[in-house]
Design brief:
Length: about 80
């Protein structure tokens, strides 16, 4: 893929550097940080499902805590 960025080494280097010239701010930056911190996938629901299917790993956040209606029984 890198070779497709340009006809010469200089063109490729400039094109590659240009990929990172955009600043990411606000909600998008926060989403990236949270997903990275938690080890989760970031993308559409279809993308996340495909990643889970391919890897066999959960890449979305699950509901935390005990299931509703759970009660400890004391005998």
């Amino acid at each position: 893929m890198y070779v497709r960025l340009g006809h010469s080494q200089t063109e490729r280097q400039q094109a590659y550097c240009a990929l990172f010239n955009n600043d990411i701010e606000g909600k998008q930056l926060n989403d990236i940080r949270q997903a990275t911190h938690k080890g989760l996938a970031l993308g559409s629901e279809q993308f996340k499902q495909e990643i889970e299917t391919l890897t066999g790993l959960r890449v979305t956040e699950s509901i935390r805590g005990r299931r509703e209606g759970w009660r400890k029984h004391i005998d």
